[in-house]
Amino acid sequence: MHWTRILGIALLAGGIILLVMGYNATESLGEELHREFMGRYTEETRWYLIAGGVMAVVGLVLTIFGVRR
Length: 69
Known about the structure:
- By secondary structure, this protein is mostly helical.
- 83% of the residues lie in helices and 0% in strands.
- The chain is built from 3 helices and no strands.
- The two termini are 12 Å apart.
């Protein structure tokens, strides 16, 4: 297995972990209250979701199209 595929798998796993953490954060009581009064998620929760999504997509692309021989 080439190093780009290994990196892709690691990024994909890390992205999924961040997405799960972000999703769990959206369900917390403090986050619900913040969203109710402010109309949006907190900065930390948004960064978890954005970073997790980007990492997961980049990891998936590297895993699928990592090395073409």
